[in-house]
Amino acid sequence: MTANLGNTDRVLRVILGLVLIFAPLLNMPAIWSSAAFSYGSMIIGLVLVATALFRFCPLYRILGVSTCRL
């Protein structure tokens, strides 16, 4: 796995991921009153945080995109 996420991309993924994980727990806004939306949001948030921690995004690899300056 070659790193393909830059620092700005990683920070944005962590912030958005944490929002998607914790917003359903706080039920803000009320769209997360549905269990499907809540669990879906948390899963997407976990994927975003995980890709930021590993500095690798499989979708970027498939598309040939890299925000990393190596």
Condensed summary:
The chain is mainly α and 70 residues long. It has three helices and no strands.
Features:
elongated; 70 residues; mainly alpha
Overview of the molecule:
By secondary structure, this protein is mainly alpha-helical. It is built from three helices and no strands. It has helices at 7-26, 35-54, 58-63. The protein starts with 6 loop residues before the first helix and ends in a 7-residue tail after the last helix. The mean pLDDT is 90.
- The residue-averaged pLDDT reads 90
Q: Biggest β-sheet, characterized?
A: none
Distance between the termini: 14 Å
Radius of gyration: 14 Å
**What portion of residues belong to β-strands?**
under 5%
Parts with pLDDT < 50 across at least 5 consecutive residues: none
What's the multimeric state? single chain
Number of helices: 3
The residue fraction in helices comes out at 55-70%
- Tell me the series of helices and strands, N- to C-terminal: HHH
Content-based structural category = mainly alpha
Shape: elongated
Count all strands and give the number. Answer: 0
Which SSEs are present, and which pair or pack?
Layout: H1 7-26, H2 35-54, H3 58-63
Helix pairs in contact: 1-2
